[in-house]
Amino acid sequence: MGDSYSNIWSYRLTWLYTLLVVFTLMLPVFYVIYISFNQNGFGARDYVFTLDWYGDIFSDLLLLNALGNTLILAAITTVVAVPMGLVAAKFYKTTRAKLFTVSLLLSPLFVPSDILGSALLVFFKNLNIACVSIGDWLGVGWFDDWFVLGYFSALIGLIIYTLPYIFVVILITMGRYHEQQSEAARSCGATAWQAFRQVEFPQIRAGVFSACAFTVILTFNEYTRTSLLKGGYDTVTSVLISQMLNEGMSEQSYAMSSLVSFIAIAVIGGTILYTLIRSEGLGREARAKALPVMSS
Amino acid sequence: MSTMKQSNEAAVQVTGLSKNYGSVQALRGVNLSIGAGEYFVLLGPSGGGKTTLLRLLGGFIRPSGGQILLHGRDVSEQPPNHRPTSMVFQSFALFPHMTVAQNVGYGLRLRKMPKREISERVDAMLEQIGLAALAERMPHALSGGQQQRVQLGRSLVLEADILLLDEPLAALDAKLRKEMCLELKHLQEQVGITFVHVTHNQEEAMTVADNLAIIADGELVETGDARTLYENPIRRFTADFIGENNMFHGRVVEVNGPLAEVDLDFAKLAVDTRGQAAKVGDRAAVSIRSELVWILSPGEEPADALQTMPATYGEAVYLGLATSHVSRLANGDTIVARQISRDEISNAFSAGTGITLAWPRREMRLHLS
Question: What would the CATH number be for the domain defined by B1-84+162-171+195-233?
Fold first, then answer.
């Protein structure tokens, strides 16, 4: 809390201000949650508490399908992109061409989402036409639909989108890792994989898990690229936005949004709490082990 | 003392070893042989290539040329885990998420040794390095010296044939470094395996080494035991790097049997060639250890065996045990006479006084390269 001479009130005001900013940012979310419990839905004058809309989520096939699609996209994106980001971060640490590597990996961040999305859309359409023409020419059809818009194209778009974030998040934790430890492990007889698995990974695990959580959230969040590339499939975001643009969100959509927020807050809050408790516990354990010897 | 370490088998045999990084030559055609059971030190200035050589021995970098034999086996293309070596690093090399005991037992676990045997060996090793009481501590709760002991234990417990030490004491303070030097030396005598130790610290090197190699600018300059390199260096660089030597530069003007006469422009010195092939016209350097130089008392007649040289007194630098008297020669070069501190000398001369310096002729050394 600053130095010993700083004003206690300025410290408290700083905290108050921070909390106020966070609260303001979260206010719309709280409002959505509030509506999701109202029997009369959005804009109604009378508020009657109910859990019905939450029950209705599970009979709303449109929403359920969209949630399923989103979860599948999030899962595959995470499984594919996080290892890629990990490998990229490891490469970055060893390469001498750092500027080139980082520019290349972060470049998707500097292309606006609609431009990247439409570029990929045109790319896949052309690729699809090429596949079909070549198939016709060869008289075979088994690669005709490789590049039809769908899961595959949406995944490519999402991987390009999430990779820079994953790279940066992992690189931050990897920055604190000392490469000598891998070399020490190797000189103790470990293979490169054992050195990574037993020595490096336990120390960068937090970064890798953060990157996974981040990827899932980014996938849930992404609209432009996904909606341009997803073909006929619906995702949670695309359903919500199309409802907003047409007849307005359905009551169970409010419930679904709240549910997703609840889960996200619970997962992230739980992670933070677990980390705090664990580091506190580790610190206490280390001190306990250190004490008897210190006193002798 | 070191004769008991004599061995016919070479633990390390390096021929024509080089390493390039792009256009930078970190190591150039090094030939080196290290006997089994020797405590060998690679000594040299920072950036000279000694760590590169050690890392080549350990398999952490791939040579650009040449061959590495460890106990007669060519390991030039082998990764670290396939070599009979183990390495101790300067710092930050303990596994921070493992306890001291887990760190020491890591290599044994990789070998799938039975749990009971691992814990017996780890306990014995912790006893040997004096850390039995700290087995359950995490590395961050250890002092720098204790951390380096754990590293030693982690390597020694594997009973590898060759232990590589990369500036293992550089992160420690001066006093602790001195203590650890002797500890290392005694530990090596106990376990009897080959130690190859990299350092830029001369005192550390001389404390531990049976034999040393001087490495600078990517080249192996000279090898020998500490006494030879200190008292009888062949190469100019060695004389400049080890100890505190006065160096004169000139040309060979006459070769007469074992003596070469070197003209310094302001004086001529007759120096033993020590078997070097000196030719008239060769550029040459002559060195004399500063502790062998003293200032003649006014009116004192020098003995025949002494070389004398006139100089202008500069200043006295008090260093505790010794005092360095810095003077200037006729050509403007400085010359240092280092003597055990005594009041009567320290205060005898004032700056600008003309003095005569003297040293034994036979202690002068000729350097042709």
Answer: 3.40.50.300
Chain A residues with CB under 8 Å of B54 CB are: none
Domain assignment present for A40: no
- Pick among A178, A187, A295 to test the B interface (most B CBs inside 10 A): A187
CB atoms within 10 A of CB A89: 25
Q: How high is the pLDDT of residue A289?
A: 54
B133 in A contact zone (CB under 8 Å): yes
Cα distance between residue B215 and residue B50, in whole Å: 6
- What is the residue type of B259? L
Mean of pLDDT values over B63-87: 93
Query: Which segment of B55-59, B117-121, B160-164, B266-270 scores lowest on mean pLDDT?
Result: B266-270
Domain of residue A245 covers 61-249
Measured between beta carbons, the chain A residues lying within 8 angstroms of B93 are 178, 180-181, 183-184
**Residue that is written with structure tokens 């194209």 in the block:** A153
Give the three-state DSSP class for A1. coil
Point out the residue among B85, B95, B134 whose CB comes nearest to the CB of A181: B95
Domain B244-367: assigned CATH number: 2.40.50.100
- Interface predicted TM-score (ipTM) over 0.85: no
Average the pLDDT over B56-76 and give the result. Answer: 93
Give the DSSP H or E segment for B317.
Answer: strand B306-318
Residue A12 in any domain: the answer is: no
Residue A148 lies in a domain: yes
What is the domain-level CATH number for residue A169? 1.10.3720.10
